[in-house]
Amino acid sequence: MTTVSLLIPQYEGFGASKIAYLQADVKVSSWTDHDVFEAITAAVTDWANKTSVGLKVLLASVNHDLNIGDVALYQGNASLQGYLAQHGIINLRIEVYTAKSVSFWNFDTSLIGNIAEET
Fold first, then answer.
1. pTM of the entire structure?
2. Which terminus of the chain is less hemmed in, N or C, by CB atoms within 10 Å?
3. What is the longest distance spanned by two Cα atoms in the chain?
4. Cβ count within 10 A of residue 71
5. Is the dihedral of CA 65, 22, 76, 39 positive or negative?
6. Pairwise CA distance, residues 44 & 27, whole Å
7. Which residues contact 15 (CB under 8 A, 6 or more apart)?
């Protein structure tokens, strides 16, 4: 079993910027990030198709799409965890962070100003 960590890109809407940080243990160590995405998608689809709570959550979601933010709210649901396990995803953990987005500053922006020369 291998632990994967993924940063789900920024979402802009309703006046907020959001990112999601996902960690999970996967049963297949050779899986790519896309394989993890496909497994989670298959598990969430099964959950929505095969359980009343999954269907209820799907119908209550904006646009009826069950995105990563919706799944984060239900990640502790036992039936969802069961479907995730069936698709090779164990201990799914999703943290969603909301903050103001700035365009002038990114990860690689230097935080060094003018340095006085030694005399």
1. 0.83
2. C
3. 74
4. 23
5. positive
6. 17
7. none
